[in-house]
Design goal:
about 120 residues; flat
Length: about 120
């Protein structure tokens, strides 16, 4: 038991030492690309930046991201329910139904407020 623990600790320390050495060796001894194209800024396929770097973004982008997280977390709550739906029975089904109705109500509210209309 103790020897297995010692061997696994040695393996972990060995990996923790070898991986950074390999990474450092590839940056030091690896090929270098230099030139005019290499030194140009690049962001998501846009070669020429339009506008200023410190321009303000619309709040709608952040609101959409928050809404995505909200409905993504909803899916995270549904996975454990789906796994144990048989053990929960009708009570679990009713709870998930109420949860989905509340989320649907929130979605309908969002749609009525025009949050997703970007015009």
């Amino acid at each position: 038991m103790v020897t297995e623990l010692v061997l696994s600790a040695i393996a972990l320390i060995g990996i923790a030492l070898v991986v950074p050495v390999i990474m450092l060796a590839t940056t030091v001894f690896g090929p270098r690309a230099a030139g005019k194209l290499k030194n140009q800024p690049y962001e998501s396929g846009i070669r020429r930046m339009i506008g200023l770097a410190d321009q303000k973004f619309s709040v709608k982008f952040y609101l959409l991201a928050i809404l995505f997280l909200l409905f993504d977390i909803e899916a995270v709550f549904m996975y454990p329910w789906a796994v144990s739906v048989r053990e929960l029975g009708w009570f679990g089904f009713a709870e998930m139904f109420v949860f989905m109705v509340l989320l649907l109500t929130g979605l309908l509210y969002i749609l009525r407020k025009g949050v997703l209309n970007w015009r």
